[in-house]
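The authors assume throughout that readers already know how a fold can be written as discrete tokens. For illustration, here is how one protein appears when written out as sequence plus structure tokens.
>
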Amino acid sequence: MNVIMKFGGTSVADAEAMTRVISIVRDHVQRYPASRVPVVVVSAMSKVTDRLVETGRLAGERQGTEAAQILADLLARHLGVAESLVQGGALETLKRDLTADFEALSAQVQQWAKDGDVSPAATDVILAAGELASSRMVAAAFIQRGIAAAWVDARRVLVTDAEHTVAAPDTDATTTQARALVASCTAKGEVPVLGGFIGATAAGATTTLGRGGSDYSAAIFGACLDV
């Protein structure tokens, strides 16, 4: 039987904190047989979600330049941590993915700022960036340090309704996706790494479970996988 290991924002706040996470997970993997490979769920890095909330507020006030600057600052912070954890080609891939995600979001935010309209659906797209980035980084760091791991986009696993910013999970659909995308990793001895808090509708629109939702995500994944 697998286990869920959930790490909050302070646990992935910086390179030093992520290194501690690596040690905890490595210890678990070494202590238990492959049948108990952990499923790792992480929050956004400390204070990142607060900054993303501010990004949405500024965009809604038509301050697109200021909103874009926050995203640029957040990208720089994530790249700095990535460079402390990952090297070589893996680092270049990680930096490319992080940059693409943040730059695409910045373009969307600036368009929303022109309209002065940041809908709940747009808010979810903005807030999801933190967990997407942290989970990418943790997965890459695991692999760099010799832990077989795979990044899993939580939006492909956690299926929800369309109540943006306070979405409710579709347990049956999520169970199907969790078994297909998460359990398949653990069956191969890989540690799946997912961001908490975020999901998507059946049609693929990004959603969030509301603040504090990363712990909720971990519980949902655990229930769906019978951990």
In short: The chain is about 60% helix and 10% strand. Residues 88-115 form the longest helix (28 residues).
